[in-house]
Amino acid sequence: MVNRHILAHQLFTGISPQHLACFVEELAAPWQAAVEGRRHEARGGARKREAGAGARHRLVFVDRLVVTLIHLRHDLPHSVLALLSGVDRSTVTRAIGEIRRLLAERGCAVPDRPGLRLRTLADVFAYAQAEGIELRLDATEVQVRRPLAGCGGRRAFVSGKKKQNTMKATVVADHQGRTLWADALRPGRMHDATAARNEGIGTCFQHFPDVEVLLDDGYLGLRRDHPGQAITQPKRPNKIALPHVHAAREEARHRHSSKRITVEHALADHKRWKQLTRWTHRRDVLPDTYRAIAGLVSDRSTTA
Fold first, then answer.
1. How many Å apart are CA 270 and CA 296, to the nearest integer?
2. CA–CA separation, 279 vs 75, rounded Å?
3. What is the CA radius of gyration of the chain?
4. DSSP letter at 284?
5. In the beta sheet, which residues pair with residue 186?
6. Among 1, 20, 2, CA closest to 10
7. What is the pLDDT, as a whole number, of residue 53?
8. What is the mean pLDDT of each run of 10 residues along the chain (304 residues)?
């Protein structure tokens, strides 16, 4: 087994030692509760031996957390991580599945609000209205494996923009490019505005009328349905319009793009984690993976 202090280095995990220590303190209890819950279900009742009796974990919780972070950051195969940890590959697979789920359920951190996490789109809108924050929303696509021939819905993953099999994630950031929410993983063929609507953004606009969201031209339908709240670039004037009209529109477009660019920076922070550059695993695991990485990125941005 490789020295755990080496594996826990920031170059491998992507987070600082202090941040890793906070993770251990935060997630140890939920992980232990989940383990005991599975054991209780398998036994069919309460334990019959004293606490602490029985087999020990060959991969303790801290090592499980480190292995999962390395897998998310560098996408190393489970067999390689098992070799580095001195355990069987199946042990690493189970460990990553357990920790990844816990990381995905954490939500995104809020700047200057320790302990507050945003887990739903409604949470983000409520926070934005309370703090007077202008949101930025955009979608990004992650290339995935092509579904097997003969499977239903095979064409749903073919992206019209990338001409590849992708899944689309919707991300919300603030004016400093800090991730506030990431979810709505949908097949790549789905339109950006449709993915946001399916997540309930229309209801959020109705319940939080003071929130403004900056969008690109892929969300023109939202601008039509929610004028004054869903803000896109100004419409292009007629070709016969006067030169000063075209100049004013170009200046407004530049101001809008300059303000909305922060969400593009947030998407770039996500793609620095290698698993989101190209997803080669099961598609049903990608949503938890993206939420876990978004939460990790939001933690780093708030503590930086």
1. 9
2. 9
3. 22
4. G
5. 168
6. 20
7. 63
8. 83 90 90 84 77 71 93 94 92 94 92 86 94 93 86 83 90 92 89 91 93 91 91 83 84 90 93 92 92 91 61
Which amino acid, residue 201?
I
Please say whether the beta carbons of 147 and 225 come within 8 A.
no
Residue type, position 57, single letter: H
Could you write out the DSSP letters of every residue in 136-159?
EEEEEEEE-PPPPTT-TTGGGGB-
Number of H helices, E strands in the chain: 12, 7
What is the DSSP secondary structure assignment for residue 167, as one 8-state letter? E
Distance CA 112, CA 69 (A): 25
Torsion of CA 24, 27, 29, 30, to 10 degrees: -160
Structure tokens at 64: 């499980």
Length, in residues, of the chain = 304
| Other C-beta atoms lying within 10 Å of the C-beta of residue 54 | 9
Cα–Cα distance measured from residue 38 to residue 44, given in angstroms and rounded to the nearest whole number? 10
Tell me the per-residue pLDDT of 244-290, one tens digit each, with 9 for 90 and over.
888 888 898 899 899 999 999 999 999 999 999 999 999 999 999 99
Handedness of CA 293, 106, 298, 184 (dihedral sign): positive
* Residue 213 bridge partners (DSSP): 135, 230
pLDDT computed for residue 37 by the predictor = 86
Per-residue pLDDT tens digits for 230-247: 999 888 877 778 888 888
231: helix, strand or coil? strand
Q: Residue 108 forms beta bridges with which residues?
A: 118
